[in-house]
Design goal:
Elements: H1 3-22, H2 29-36, H3 42-46, H4 48-73, H5 80-84, H6 88-163, H7 167-237
Helix pairs in contact: 1-6, 2-6, 4-6, 6-7
Length: 238
């Protein structure tokens, strides 16, 4: 194996290791987001897009070179040289095997590089959505507790008015009741706004989930296309 293909193979093993670590179930998306937001990643984050595109171009070029080598050594008719040199067939078969190996390595390296970037993006999105959902849930719980408290105060005030006597007490109680009713209306309005915002966020989260499912299906289709592209090579070898 030449130096370039050794480097591609090591890069493929590195991708597999990173994806296995990212898929560990006991590490949450929020924790991964905190890890990825550490200061040590700041220099890499500035050039991440350039590094990603550069690696994609290099891997695609190597993949196309491997495809060319496979087509080159997949020719069944070797000509008169094969008759003159008995070992020519074995030599060409060995070359074909190496070309196919390089094709698999470069193809899976390209595929896993795309998958790794997508997984990191999905982890960040999931962590952000989880944080937003938790904040909205806390706001909704606070609004519900406040509304419950004012309803209890309202019931207590009504009970006090019923037990009171005299016009002065009634007037004072009615004034307090009006103030409590106004506060209760404001709190209920705030609660309705929070609930409407929660519903909008839930709809947005559903759309995001559908989009992620489509992206995952797209990646599976690309993987299937890659396997289908490699299948004719195996048939030619047989």
């Amino acid at each position: 194996m030449t130096l370039q293909w050794t480097a591609v193979a090591l890069f493929l093993y590195m991708e597999i290791g990173v994806l296995v670590i990212l898929c560990l179930p006991f590490i949450s998306a929020k924790r991964w987001q905190r890890i990825l937001n550490l200061r040590i990643w700041s220099p890499v984050a500035r050039f991440w897009n350039k590094v990603f595109l550069t690696m994609i171009i290099i891997l695609i070029v190597l993949f196309l070179d491997a495809v060319r080598e496979v087509r080159k050594y997949s020719v069944k008719n070797l000509g008169t040289d094969a008759k003159l040199l008995p070992n020519m067939h074995d030599h060409m078969h060995m070359k074909l095997f190496r070309a196919q190996r390089n094709l698999y390595i470069s193809g899976f390296a390209v595929f896993l590089w795309l998958v790794m970037k997508r997984v990191i993006t999905l982890i960040n999105q999931l962590a952000s959505v989880s944080g937003t959902t938790a904040a909205l849930q806390a706001q909704a719980d606070t609004a519900n507790k406040t509304a419950k408290k004012y309803m209890e105060d309202n019931e207590l005030l009504k009970k006090t008015l019923m037990e009171g006597s005299g016009d002065a007490a009634t007037a004072e109680g009615m004034e307090l009741l009006k103030k409590e009713v106004e506060k209760l209306k404001e709190e209920l309005k705030a609660s309705e706004d929070v609930l409407k915002k929660s519903e909008c966020d839930a709809v947005a989260l559903k759309k995001l989930t559908d989009s992620l499912a489509k992206e995952y299906d797209k990646l599976l289709q690309e993987h299937q296309v890659l396997q289908n592209a490699q299948s004719p090579v195996n048939k030619k070898e047989d």
